[in-house]
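ok so I'm stuck.
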Amino acid sequence: MATACFPEPESAEQGLRLSVLVVDDHQPNRRIMAVLLESLGCAVSCAASGEEAVELARHAIFDLVVMDLHMTGIGGDEATRRLRAHGRSRSAFVVQWSSDPMGRLNHGLYDARLAKPAALDELQALVAEVRRRLQGRVNEEIPVQVRFRPTT
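replied:
not stuck anymore, here's the structure
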């Protein structure tokens, strides 16, 4: 079962503390993303596979899911379909996370796309957007994926 990657930070950034699930089959990627998100005041849990992510999301509520696209076992697309179909995190903001520069965002499945490696300013914008959405202050004029990485 997935556990928190690191202890909670001593001081969180002002605003809503997001519960985030980071899903990647490569431990260094999970660790770096977790450290960056925790520095932004997020409570982070990690899953090493799509299967583990789906199981964890059945029992916990996540505000944000950062989903690796290409993983051993079920990939990010299938894990996201299962997450959206079942469990307590169906309404989570799900970000496609991939190193594929030619990758395309599946708008019906993901809310945004984030390229690897992720820059801190992109994560700050992502966290701010998810907080705004949870607080009911959504700017519908600017598509979310444009703020992070343009999709082709």
